[in-house]
Amino acid sequence: MKIMSCKQLGGACDKEFHADSFDEIAEISKQHGMEMFQKNDEAHLKAMNEMQQIMQKPEAMTEWFENKRKEFEALPES
């Protein structure tokens, strides 16, 4: 099991996510983002807008995603 924070995954808070795989932690982060969107959380909305800018360029999004995957893989098991 590895731990990454919302901020480490491009979000706006220090909430920690625990998962065994990067795909799992990405899904948990996505669910958290949707929850914060529904709550109209200003800091998370700003972070989402920044992510949307990255998503405009598929190669930039792929690079961002792979860098986060590598960061996850390099983390120690908790």
Counted by DSSP, the helix tally is 3
Order of secondary-structure elements: EEHHH
Poorly predicted regions are none
| Proportion in β-strands | 5-15%
The number of domains is 1
Global geometry: globular
Helical content, roughly?
55-70%
How would you characterize the largest beta sheet? 2 strands, antiparallel
Mean pLDDT: 96
- Structural class call reads mainly alpha
By oligomeric state, this entry counts as single chain
Sheet with most strands: strand arrangement = 1-2
Radius of gyration: 12 Å
Instruction: Report the end-to-end length measured between terminal Cα atoms.
Output: 6 Å
Total strands: the figure is: 2
Q: Overview of this structure, please?
A:
- It is built from three helices and two strands, in the order ββααα.
- It has helices at 22-38, 42-55, 58-74, and strands spanning 2-5, 16-19.
- By secondary structure, the chain is mainly alpha-helical.
- It has one domain (2-74).
- The chain is 62% helix and 10% strand.
